[in-house]
What does this fold into?
Amino acid sequence: MNLKRLGRAVGLLAALTLASPAATHAEDIVRIASAYRTTTLDPALSAAAGNIETYGQLYGRLIRRAADGSLEPGLAESWAVSDDGKTVTLKIRDAKFSDGSPITADDVVFSLLRVRDLKESAYSAPLQQLAEAKAGDAQTVILTLKSAFAPFVGNLEVFNTGIVSKKDVETRGEAAFTTTPVTSGPYVVKEWRPNDRLILAANPHYWREGYPKNDGAELIEVVDDNTRVTMMIAGELDAARGVPWSQVADLKGRDGISMPLEPSTVIFMTLLNHSRAPFNDLKVRQAAAHAIDTVAVTKAMTFGYAATANTTLPGAVDFHDKDNPGLGYDVEDAKKLLKESSYDGKPATILITDSAESERLAVLLQAQWAVIGLNAKIEKVDGGVWWERVPGADYDAAPTWWYNETPDPDLAVRWALCGTCGSESYYTKYNNAKVDELTETAARELDPVKRGALYKEIQTISTEEVAQIPLYYPPYANAYGNRIKGLMMTPSLQWTLEETEVVQP
Amino acid sequence: MSRIPAIGLRLVQLLPVLIGITIVTFLLVKLSPGDPVRLMLGDRATEETVAAVRAQLGFDLPLWKQYLSYAGNLLQGDLGQSIRYRLPVLDLILGVMPRTLFLATYVLVLSIPATVILSVVAARHAGKPVDQIIRILSVIGMTIPVFWLGIMLARFLGVELGLFPVSGYGDGFIDHLHHLFLPALSTSVWLVPMLVRNLRASILEQMEADYVVASRAKGLPARYIFGRHILPNSLLPTLNLLGVMIAFLIGGSVIVEIVYAVPGLGGLMIEAVLARDYTVIQGLTLFYALGTVIVTLSVDLISTWIDPRVQL
Amino acid sequence: MSHLGLSTAVPRARSRGSIEISIGGSLLSAWLFLAIFGPSILGVDPNQIDLVAILQPPHADHWLGTDQLGRDALARILMGARIDILMSVLGVLPPLIIGVVVGLVSGYFGGWIDSILMRLVDITVAFPFLVLVIAIVGMLGPGLDNFFVALALVGWVSYARLIRARGLVLREAEFIQAARGLGYPPLYILFRHVMPKALSPIAVYAMSDAVMVMLAGASLGFVGLGVQPPTPEWGVMIADGQPFVTMGWWICLFPGMAAASLGLGFLLLSDGLAGRLGVRK
It folds into this structure.
């Protein structure tokens, strides 16, 4: 492009006056931008996006998940599950923390119990089935479960089960996590600039020989979507998380940038409040669901890059029922159902946060519900208020998204569909005793085929009863530059940073 | 003439203002809905966890007790710990402050010469096409939303022409200049018109002042009158405006900071508000207040230096 | 912040002021006309989504194209004129009234009342304008009503300062001294004699303040705290259209032009008024 050449020439001039930008990338540093911030380095304290990605780079877990989704050894070089499914014995490999001290069974027990028991632990659900953890010898950990629990070993791969140094945490206390924690994963913290970026350096004591394949990484926090895209095009980044759908085509068409659109366990849906009118009436919920042209909504929201959702579970979790026909778009049926229902014409409140995406979704819902005579008004609040009102069931509908941290659907069901599992079906107060019972049965069932059937039943019931209105399953819209190779995001929100090579320094 | 007592008096008057500011911010953040704990813990924390953390942070105490303990720490120079980051508020603020200050200074360095030149040209050709062109450009500059302009400049000057980095702060002085050029330019596009409107008007006003007419009648050269009398006298009101603008720049470059990914004070404030990070909001507000006072005081001092008739 | 800079202009030939007033005035009247009658003349629902017609460039059916939800851009801009004009009026008037009252009282009575009120001004000024507005809107919740509350809480300072300065000068003016000598009550003097004399810089400033209010509204839209959807507001239309600029040039351009022309109207009127009223600093 001529313009570009002209620009380079002028740029050279400018460079003469302003001096050249320092060549800061002499080392093989991978630069990743995301809108989500690192707010704490303590794996027990948060389950918010941003921290989830960071934990994976700092704290090694007992189990790793291979690219194909199967489980492979992590800090545990082997494990065995007893015949009754209630005891898991793990053999810890000969590995070291970033300060050079050995990782022992004591550290493992300490780390797991910390997540399970710490008062401030943000997400103890993955370890709720753990009855007792003890060290057999220095390299052996014996975990006893309350009952047989199929997803348990997989849960040892969840983001907050990384191993921390018992000695470090006990001596430094909270301060152990505020600047430079002792880590067991591929990286150590070189510098944390809160509200800006986290600078990682390779952990010289990392147990995987030859990893990480780079010298370090910068996790840069860039809140504006457009800015991330501009930075990506300008070559100031190696990867950008969350490219707006409207710019995917543009980025795909550019040299040196690829957008593989990796599968995710993200599901966009709208919560419905089952504890008050109008959505406490099954017929209103069904009418509301039939009124939405989910195919058109998917296309309008994501320019066709996402798959239309058919059940209440994310499309990428195991046992997702691909054959479920979903609720379907049928305006006449919706009108009929609404007429038969108890709906009195009072407007329902669609509660959204201040994100552009949820705003557009809300407008779409409002418009499509208006067609069948279901009135709604949109109320936009900021995240702080949203998280107060949704758990308090002070809303009628709330379009939003969630993701599952494991391919196993157990945590997903407990989070979004189980009425007695703490979150009361993602605060919708949807409560079906049969679903709750199936949740427990499925978790204890060790035969995959039988488990599949149970989860299918859960999806059938909750979709028909419109626990929530599923909308679409988006892939990750991450952009990658060709300066690096091997970086991707796993369905459980982890970067494969340690596998990443810088090919064009 | 001794200005020391006057400055001293100004500083004493500052005290009730600062107390007022702490109370206002404290109430503002405490009485607003929204829970920092929930935002901090993430989506899946249980209600019990949320309650436990709230108690640990002392949020279940009566409001006045919370304020007193806050004010007490403040007196000892302790701004407290960020609720969200569990790091000292002072560190968070000092960590980003240099960027904001650098950016604000940069903006001034770009804006002041541009303002003086454009205003003088416009005023000397008042009513002529040059003047009208400057006026129309000013209006456009003032009405373009900064975020739109920012993205356009980044895409054109940054990406298409490859002249400047589109993000970040850089390392070292020269690198800062290079990285912050687009943010500074985007801000100046909005600031210069504001100042030009003001300065042009005061120059015109001075040009018709009696003493100028008299000097002209005495036969003093026009250039001398302009450089010696009109310009210095016109600068005073603009200087005051500039003071207000600097205070504004310290916090108000938020949008530019977001667009160019240069995390500064403004961005920290917005984030803190959205995350209900009370301690950070309070700490920042105090910083802003101090900053504003320092700036206004400096402007007043410079004013007395330019025109000794001005009183502090 | 107080944006005193806008309140300036040429205290000169009245004829020039007239040209500015007429151009500015006609721009504003044109927008006022479009805001009142435009939507019904066009007869298109600004909130009607059309998922098969998203992001269409301007053509016969949609003169200014469609947005990311297939809504007609022209209909939204016309309806947005109502919102933006309302915003500039309601965003300016309450702070103006509060500021005038505070400023008059402070400047006229002086003494401890003045001290207290001016400390209040200092407190408010200490918060950066945009950040304080964002903070208040963030806490009260996004939406027009809270936006007005935030502006009223923040914006009065500039007016108070402007008018206090006038009040201080006028207090010593001969005709006021005379009125006092005649035994008129202070409040009577204040509102009957002082206020009218002090109002002209206020009127001029208010015009340019209106532009600032519109820009503040747009900035709020950018950080996600703008008007409640689906209300069409120009600033929010620009902000929401941002991710789509690479797919269509018309999305941000037209609302941007609308905002610029209304802003131009306010600013010209401000200049013209300043010329006519002979406002001095």
